[in-house]
Amino acid sequence: MISRNFSAAISGGKREPISNTGLLLSITICTFIGMYVLAMLIWGGGFLNPQQFLDIFNNNAFLIVISCGLTVVMIAGGIDISVGGITALVTMACVVYLDDHGGSVIGSMGLALGIGAAFGLVQGILISYLDIQPFIVTLAGMFFAKGMTTIVSVAPRTAVHEAFVAFKQFRIVIPGIGSFGKSGNFIPAKIEIGVIAAIAVVLAVTAILKWTRFGRNLYAVGGNKQSALMLGINVKRTKFYSHLLSGFLAGIGGYVYLLHTGAGNASNATAAEMQAIASAIIGGTLLTGGVGNAIGTLFGVLSLKNINNIVIASGLREPYWQSITTGLILCFFILLQSVVLALRGKGSFNQQLPEWLKFRDKEDSKDLTS
Amino acid sequence: MDNGLKKFSRSQLVVPLFSLFLLIVFNLIRDVGFFSVIVTTNNEGNTVLSGNLISILNGASELAIIAIGMTLVTASSGGQDISVGAAAAIAGSVFVRVLRENQITMPIILAAFLAGCVVAIIFGSFNGTLVAAFKIQPMIATLILFTAGRPIAYWINGGATPTVSSSLLNYIGSFIPGIPIPTPIIIVIIFGVLVSLVLRFTNLRLYTQAVGINERSARLTGINAAGIKLLSFMILGVCVAISGSIGVSRIGLINHETLLLDIEMDAILAVAIGGNSLGGGKFSLTGSVIGAYIIQALTITLYAMKVSSTAVKAYKAIVIIAIVIISSPIVKEYALRLRGRLLGKPKEVTENQ
Q1: Which of A47, A193, A197, B151 matches a 20 to 30 Å C-alpha distance to B71?
Q2: CATH of domain A2-10+23-352
Q3: Domain of B233: which CATH number?
Q4: pLDDT-based confidence at B69, cuts 50/70/90?
């Protein structure tokens, strides 16, 4: 399975069946679109409002960013659970820097990126060069970040720095779409700056994964470390860079979070690491490594958050329903992936399907029929 | 060098024991009376032991029990169960629910505990089935229950945080009259002895290690690999139910949000600090239990040093990183090579490796 996956990833040729990454990605995208269309048909109302769709982005831009970092690490076969902690630390450090130390907006951005990169650097060294289990290192990283957040300031802080507040409240109006308010006035749809950053991160990570040597190395290392080593790939350096990138993205994620809420709080982004892992899994990334995609992760976040909207729309307003349905959706995707990959691995899945559903390109099936 | 000592110096318990020793020495230097145990009388008129040592041993009870189960799961499946905190909240909720619907007597407490056990085993089997039959990574499989577990616990008691008060429950959570040692410590000892007896007189240890080291070859030699994995998750379920019941008995109420919060992280740490590989295979329960006490000792030490409870995590992280760096194979190898160079005995170094 690994070799097939790897060869499919390298060649991308037309005669190859769709790669595992592609298959899981298409399942995720189809599920999200299906879910959203269904919600629009059943509940209409809010789901037809473009602003509500964009609000999924507005509210979860930081989650998209940190999930992308996790995707990179998970493709290389690792795990990073420090991202939520780093997010909280970045928000708090930036607020304190802006308000108490007379910092500038640019400086706070630099601080956020610096904190993230520093965490990534240390964790990367410990994991790849000292060969310590990533779970333990990043768990300690999470503890450290959360502890440091309260050392920086125990009380929650809200940023009052003028330039920053102006920057935070800046909205980008999307021309042409919007909704009509109660008095019939047109309210254009708006997105926050963080969303632009999140989309940029998704595109950048996709490009890195697809077109750079580092990106291809990640899949090779995650697919089979031993063969990657035999191919002459520097496994340790690849793992190191994956954690560095994840830490860096967590820094960006923290700043995006701050742009959304404008407050530093030790309880910011609680359990975000688990949501990020869940999003990556729903997006088709395997924790075993070697399979995954940043676009999938984006749709993973959207699916995860859309569930919450649907649960609320269907009248289950108790907060615990959201967690239970999230668990169920996660269960569904995990089982689906497991079954699909197991059947594909045996090679029997493809044969059982009717001709028109086979995972082959059109030209390929023409060859078969002729 | 004595042969026994040499054997010990290669054992995986060296680093955890050494860390524990350092912690104790540090505390003794800081405050000579840190570990003094005082005999006092508590509110109910019992003669009880108190002091930092007792509070370390007492406070780590839940963690030690869960660490035992987590070690087995880690050894057999090569992954960790991150849903133990949530599962403990569920088991605790069931425990409280049964207690609240009946007059509290000793048999009812036992029945409530058994009910909690059964529910925890069912949830353990759910995780175990995902891992063993569907071949899903344990961390991912248990992420489901991690997300949904505490809300389920909330739901069991109808969305409230009910209290149960009974002197009988205090016997479990604090002291039995006439016995000066806190009951949770006694429960840990009984449970630990029980598990080690099971491991000694059955093939469980051998089979678990075989499955963890190489699942395929274990299966080919006739071991039911999936069954062993499932069994380890069910044992963890029992551990979780015991811990959940202790946790509830301590404070006499169930708060689904805070009961044994973050214990999954601490339990995994305990397993790692105990020198066990998180990738499965050979394991040492003693190591994990020592790991649990190290974590608790560290926490109590930091509290004694007037570190605020929220900032404790940062210091904990530094100590943990130090411990795992010392025990990482690469650093060990480097230290051995350094020692060989200093002592001029390169031959022994190759032997050690």
Answers
A1: B151
A2: 1.10.3470
A3: 1.10.3470
A4: very high
Cβ-based contacts under 8 A for chains A and B: 130
- Residue B48 β-bridge partners: B40
Pick the range with the lowest mean pLDDT from A38-42, A192-196, A213-217: A38-42
Chain A (249-308) residues lying within 8 Å, Cβ to Cβ, of chain B: 266, 274, 277-278, 281, 287-288
- Structural domain total, chain B: 2
Predicted model pTM:
0.84
- Please indicate whether, in this complex, the C-beta atoms of B310 and A147 are within 8 angstroms of each other: yes
Supply the range of the domain harboring residue B256: 3-306
* Model confidence at A361: pLDDT above 50: no
B147, A266: Cβ pair inside 8 Å? no
Tell me the residues of chain A between 337 and 366 that have a Cβ less than 8 Å away from chain B: 338-339, 342
Closest residue of A to B324, CA-based?
A132
Q: Is A133 on the interface with B (CB under 8 A)?
A: yes
